[in-house]
């Protein structure tokens, strides 16, 4: 992954950036030595390098038993589904399903979504991967009850046992009790790995492997990122990213827009939004993480970004892959006046749109942070996910908050339970 911070540093100045990097380095040291806030939730830092081959073989073997099903429903919400969804959406072709088809559920409480899902599954051989660290979250618990009930109507006990994988806490929670009682295959989410930092644990690896993608490569990318991002060096890109975004925040840039030019990354940005929003948005502080997909959203939010309130900075991920881009054909009549780009591939045009937008937005006082990868594959996704996780830990410490808790999420639940008469 290439990174370029120059289009942001021009807004903050080199000296301030250097000082911010020095502060970021101190925070990385605190993070990596476990001396900071939330230090009982740091198990994710070493995940890519703490697996042995047997753990991975176990995950692959179990996942393969699901590969001949028509569909597998991944039940989970927040950190228990977004990482896997991000990777699968980034890797799967736009207009084909994976085999088995991967469907997500339990990430909302919409009645129509779940009734249509039950209807869709009624003639399919399906399995369930149910993921909940607490084992008590309402959305996945309700979805699991519904789909488990459907399974019980159609399959015998032995078949059901083979069709359900539960990923949850080692001891606590209703899902743990159910998994033990019913004998489901289960994987443990370690106590010290929070949901939004769990994509490199079985929470992400099992769904990604079931979808047929290469988790060895995914972990290899993350492991290389671990070596680079834990280095106490001003050249470390995670240090630079944490340093520049905190500096921009301090100068009034309160909104960070994650920009992609490739729709396959739309769920990657959803994952990133949760990671940063839930980690930093507390104590009345924190950059608001938002996202856009260009050039689509240049025709909706582009106006605001160019000329609206000056509180935005952008972090762009550009995928430099032209391998399957169609060539724009020449046309004798040229009525659409496109012959000036005939013979170019479509990604060439996309790239020029990116370069033109970058110039325009920077001119419009929107600082830009740039990341480029050569292609969207398991390796690069693993690399980027680890990179953004470490940078998030550093950045949260720079802001002075505990990046590993989420006390604010409980408030809606308390009210909802009261209203439901729990
Ligand atoms: O990042 C987090 O901690 C949250 O998003 C949780 O993952 C989410 O609330 C789901 O929780 P659980 O896995 O306990 O069902």
Q: What report would you give on this structure?
A:
This protein has 422 residues and is α/β, with parallel strands linked by helices. The protein has 2 domains: 2-36 and 230-399, Glucose-6-phosphate isomerase like protein, domain 1 (Rossmann fold, 3-Layer(aba) Sandwich); 47-218, 3-Layer(aba) Sandwich (Rossmann fold), CATH 3.40.50.10490. The protein has 17 helices and 10 strands. It has helices at 6-12, 14-32, 47-50, 53-64, 82-91, 111-121, 138-154, 157-163, 174-182, 202-210, 215-229, 237-250, 266-280, 302-307, 346-363, 378-399, 410-420, and strands at residues 2-4, 71-75, 101-105, 126-132, 164-168, 185-188, 255-260, 288-293, 312-319, 368-373. The strands form 2 sheets. A 5-stranded mixed sheet has the order 1-10-9-7-8, with helices on both faces. α2 (14-32) packs across α16 (378-399) and α5 (82-91) runs parallel beside α10 (202-210). The longest helix is centred in the C-terminal third of the chain and has 22 residues, at 378-399. The N and C termini lie far apart (48 Å). The mean pLDDT is 97. Bound molecules: 5-phosphoarabinonic acid. 5-phosphoarabinonic acid binds next to loops.
Relevant CATH superfamily of the largest domain: Glucose-6-phosphate isomerase like protein, domain 1
Report the top-level CATH class of the largest domain: Alpha Beta
Query: Which ligands does the model contain, each kind named once?
Result: 5-phosphoarabinonic acid
Helix content: 40-55%
Which segments are poorly predicted (pLDDT under 50) over 5 or more consecutive residues?
Answer: none
The strand order across the widest sheet is: 1-10-9-7-8
Any idea what the radius of gyration is? 23 Å
Distance between the termini: 48 Å
Total domain units: 2
> Average pLDDT, to the nearest integer?
97
CATH topology of the largest domain: Rossmann fold
The total count of helices amounts to 17
Strand content: 5-15%
**Shape assignment:** globular
Examine the secondary-structure arrangement and name the CATH architecture of the largest domain: 3-Layer(aba) Sandwich
The major beta sheet can be summarized as: 5 strands, mixed
Overall structural class, as computed from helix and strand content, comes to alpha/beta
Let me know the number of strands. Answer: 10
Reading the helices and strands in chain order gives EHHHHEHEHEHHEHEHHHEHEHEHEHH
């Amino acid at each position: 992954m290439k990174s370029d911070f120059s289009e942001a540093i021009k807004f903050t100045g080199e000296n301030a950036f250097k000082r911010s990097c020095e502060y970021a380095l101190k925070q990385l040291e605190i993070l990596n030595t476990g001396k900071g806030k939330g230090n009982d939730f740091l198990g994710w830092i070493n995940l890519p390098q703490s697996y042995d081959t047997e753990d991975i073989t176990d995950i692959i073997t179990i996942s393969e038993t699901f590969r001949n099903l028509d569909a597998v429903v991944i039940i989970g919400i927040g950190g228990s589904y977004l990482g896997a969804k991000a990777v699968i959406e980034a890797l799967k072709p736009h207009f084909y399903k994976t085999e088995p088809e991967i469907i997500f559920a339990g990430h909302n409480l919409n009645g129509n979504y779940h009734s249509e899902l039950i209807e869709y599954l009624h003639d399919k051989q399906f399995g369930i991967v149910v993921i909940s660290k607490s084992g008590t979250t309402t959305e996945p618990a309700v979805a699991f009850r519904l789909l488990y009930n459907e399974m019980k109507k159609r399959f015998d006990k032995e078949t059901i046992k083979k069709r359900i994988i539960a990923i949850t806490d080692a001891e606590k929670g209703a899902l743990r009790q159910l998994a033990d009682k019913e004998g489901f295959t289960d994987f443990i989410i370690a106590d010290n790995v929070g949901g939004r930092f769990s994509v490199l644990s079985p929470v992400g690896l099992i769904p990604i492997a079931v979808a047929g993608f290469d988790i060895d490569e995914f972990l290899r990318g993350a492991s290389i990122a671990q070596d680079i991002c834990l280095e106490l060096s001003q050249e470390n890109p995670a240090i630079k990213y944490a340093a520049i975004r905190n500096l921009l925040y301090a100068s009034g840039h309160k909104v960070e827009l994650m920009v992609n030019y490739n729709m396959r990354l739309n769920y990657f940005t959803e994952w990133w939004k949760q990671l940063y929003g839930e980690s930093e948005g507390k104590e009345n502080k924190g950059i608001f993480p938002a996202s856009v997909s260009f050039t689509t959203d240049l025709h909706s939010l582009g106006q605001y970004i160019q000329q609206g309130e000056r509180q935005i900075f952008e972090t762009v991920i550009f995928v430099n892959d032209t391998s399957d881009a169609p060539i724009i054909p020449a046309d004798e009549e040229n009525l659409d006046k496109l012959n000036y780009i005939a013979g170019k591939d479509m990604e060439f045009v996309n790239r020029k749109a990116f370069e033109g937008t970058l110039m325009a937005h920077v001119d419009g006082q929107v600082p830009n942070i740039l990341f480029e990868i050569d292609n969207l594959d398991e390796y690069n996704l693993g690399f980027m996910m680890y990179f953004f996780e470490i940078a998030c830990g550093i950045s949260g410490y720079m802001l002075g908050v505990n990046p590993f808790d989420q006390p604010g999420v409980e408030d809606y639940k308390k009210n909802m339970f009261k209203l439901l008469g729990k």
